[in-house]
Model the fold of this input.
Amino acid sequence: MSLEIKNLRISFRRANTLFEAVHGVSFSLGDGRALGIVGESGCGKTLSAMSVMRLLPSTAVITEGEIVYNGLDILSLSEKEMRMIRGNKIALIPQDPLTSLNPLYTIGDQLMEVILLHQEVTKKEAKEIALESLNMVKIPDASKRFDDYPYQFSGGMCQRVIIAMALASEPDLIIADEPTTALDVTVQAQIMELFSEIRQKRKTSLILITHDLGLISENVDDVAVMYAGAVVEYASVKELFLNPSHPYTKGLLGSLPRGGKERLKIIEGQPPQVGEIISGCRFHPRCEFVMDKCNKKYPERYFLSDNHSVNCFLYE
Ligand code: SF4
Done:
């Protein structure tokens, strides 16, 4: 699996005017690798990742950029070709498992429906694949629970079923959008452990979208930190935590609880709204290191090493 996003720009159309929400995002992902996209709500992380499946809100328009998946130019594929990729080659794990399952159908029926939609198999074979997927995500007594309804499952178990649905077609890329936000902490850890096992067994690549740096630290190889629609820092996870460089990343890490009596740092101010025009570096109204030039032009991407880049004039 290979994925490359280059200079992606996405705008929202409102009353014949385009408001840019994603400003030239670039990242890449290789076979079996995991990329974390981290940032506050509304920073463009979900829009950037969903563009890979071309699942964007109806008012969103990709105005520029390239998305190349396994050599295919995603932006020029027909809707029919995209349907072959969605749910088949690239699977989505949504945030809230309960609203993603139909309460009127059994878990087994919903799993089989997905399998029959994407694979040319008989009903008997679909049931075998469904049970195998439920076993893979460690649903106890999978054959007995096959005919249960979603309300008979806990939130964590429902999320396992959603993951089983995603795995049934053996995708080579999973996009997980805040997959554990609706779950309690111990279930969170179990679900992330499950992702890790799946990645090891199947060499599946993962894009993990989250606002939670703690989750990122243990579950991905590389991290793109996004702020106000742009990637501001990109690094291997180890490098990011050892040597955070962008003032925003430093602020995010400074606001993580560490135990002890040390007071948490907060980043003063608010991120801009979509469409709000901010000249220069979009972080400058909140940055404690702001310089004269920061509000005049947008900082380029400066490379601190092969696997660490940052968009900030401090590294010019
Ligand atoms: Fe702060 Fe300037 Fe760097 Fe932006 S470019 S993060 S304002 S120092």
Observations:
- Residues 246-247, 281, 283-284, 287, 289-291, 294, 299, 312-314 surround iron/sulfur cluster (CB under 6 Å).
- The mean pLDDT is 91.
- The first strand starts at residue 3 and ends at 14.
